[in-house]
Amino acid sequence: MNLEFNIPNMVDLKKSYDEDGYNHIPELFSASDMDILNKEFNRYIKDCVPMMKDQEVYYVDKSNKDTLMQMQKLEEYDNFFHELFFNSKIKDLAANALGEDVVPRAMEYFNKPPGKSNPTPPHQDGYYFNLDNDKAVTGWLALEDVDDENGCIHYVKGSHKHEYRPHGRSEILGFSQGVTDFGTEEDKKNTVKFEGKAGMFLMHDAKIIHFASSNKSSVRTRRAFGFVYHGVSAKHDVEKGKAYQKKLHDELKEKKII
Ligand SMILES: O=C(O)CCC(=O)C(=O)O
Q1: If one looks up domain 10-254 in CATH, what number appears?
Q2: What is the mean pLDDT of each run of 10 residues along the chain (258 residues)?
Q3: Which of 22, 110, 152, 200 to mutate to test the pocket of ligand 1 (most atoms within 8 A of CB)?
Q4: How would you classify residue 117: left for phi > 0, otherwise alpha for psi between -120 and 50, otherwise beta?
Q5: Is residue 125 within 6 Å of ligand 1 at its C-beta?
Q6: 249 Cβ partners below 8 Å, 6+ apart?
Q7: What CA dihedral angle connects 59, 64, 65 and 67, to 10 degrees?
Q8: What residues does each domain of the chain span?
Q9: For the whole model, what pTM was predicted?
């Protein structure tokens, strides 16, 4: 893999991860490496998306392929992305954040197509993960410039130090649950937004509250990869996860959303 990872001091990263609940690396990849990644991803869309299962690919409008908005398990369909997820410094960053070796769980794609996207509701990933502890992280790589207009990520700094907040059905495709009591003074005070260039990398704790607005642009997309890793100490209740996914899948099928 011919990519150069621009990684700051790992000890400092660990310290800020523990304190804030996330890492922010403004330029993990240079503009030229982002060109390589985006070319590989365009190839992926052409060659691999047609092979994916319907529950792994979500469209805002499934009759319009230009509205591709979310994908799961990219690593299973392509060697380049398998390597990026399993054997690159992104995995080292996850292990550094958690303070233990990690197991890759799923590589994801998050887009907000112009004019049609939903907001990302405030949520805590660990609420969906079905783990017996909270040892998990999600890496998030901006594939293009992100800002207020196209829906950059916001974290509630330090929220990983508290208990899970109550979640309820959000009715937003791809984010079936959201925090129901979000918006307290503490939430507002501690919210930090992450505008940045293509190549900006974030890595957040399973318990941190995060969200993004919809894409308000009529021309820009808001494309990003997600990289989910568990710590080796976390046990995944696979059956519980599958049962939830099946229930969700059946509901979405019935409503003709997927
Ligand atoms: O890209 C987004 O808007 C949401 C991403 C997200 O929720 C995550 O990476 O856990």
Answers
A1: 2.60.120.620
A2: 93 98 98 97 97 92 91 97 97 98 97 90 92 95 98 98 91 84 96 98 98 96 98 89 75 70
A3: 110
A4: beta
A5: yes
A6: 55, 258
A7: -50
A8: 10-254
A9: 0.94
Atom 1 of ligand 1, nearest CA residue:
110
C-beta neighbour count of 95 within 10 angstroms: 16
> Could you tell me if the CB of 120 is within 6 A of ligand 1?
yes
221 lines ligand 1 (CB under 6 A): no
